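Weekly puzzle thread! Below is a chain. First person to post its structure in token form gets bragging rights.
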Amino acid sequence: MKKFLLSAILVLLATACNAAQPTVQPTAQTTSLTVMTHDSFEVSADLIAAFEKENNVKVTFLKSGDAGSALNKAILSKNAPLADVFYGVDNTFLSRALDAGIFEPYNAPLLKTIPTNYMLDPTDDLLPVDYGDVCINYDKAYFSNRSLTVPQNFEDLLKPEYKDMLVMENPATSSTGLAFLLATIAHFGQNNYLDFWKDLNSNGLVVVDDWSTAYYSNFSGSSGHGPQPLVVSYASSPAAEVIYAETKLIEAPTGSITSEGTCFRQVEFVGILKGTPHRKLAEKFVDFILGVRFQEDMPLQMFVYPVNPDAKLPPEFVKYAQVSASPASIDPGIIATNRDKWISAWTEVVLH
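Winning reply:
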């Protein structure tokens, strides 16, 4: 009986409480927006949360390997796109991305503020977001402890004292590796660059598939356990070493070789994938990426430079990141015509 009375009282209380509650009106269903990126993409969680709240959207990031691998995945799935937006195409893969016809043009309002030297796609299928210099990084302690001079140019890498010291990324799968290959082509010329690679291969060059493997597994300057004291990375990598160090550092343990022509300037782009059912939201996300909030967040997240001139650099990035005064460059049209041939020839010389 006591159990029955208690149950009856609880039912009456619940009914009264429900009657006192106002009717909740249904809200608009949250839309999902998928952004395909390379594995190095990072952004502050609070920025994405703010964008999601402002636009009633849930953003999902689909990390898909290095830039070259991610682009291949987007091209192979173009008949059934896996995402609405793609971030991470750079100027080394620009023509491949455009020739695939997987993007829809978008003349974003903020393009008016971006310097024209970053505007490499006149169709506005791909819009510039950031830039950085691909250079050889070195482990300072390794060279200091052995009283060995750090190599200053490509020719130095062929000397016997630097045998087995350099690890790089495969240019067939990595935009970082491709940028380094292009720098050597710009330096030696199309008729002579393979001679350099034959000699470098004979001097103990190590090739891995992607940047993460090269930097965190092979490079001695990052993990302290890798066998190679030289790695193809970025001129901003020394800043990352300081900022993410477990104990406070007063200087970077690594440096970048930035002498004339030894670095290649990468420009990264964002584009709206063709066939997205969320075109307006995709446009808003592109606007968000080009806006000052995102642009100022990038340096300490992905260690790249913003293309929006209104974005201010964080002081620690200015202090520790390096930039090449005279980076190598090749016209995108020439890259488009020759890229696959160059990669194939490089593969034949180095990997076979």
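Puzzle host: Confirmed. Bonus trivia for everyone else. The longest helix spans residues 2-20.
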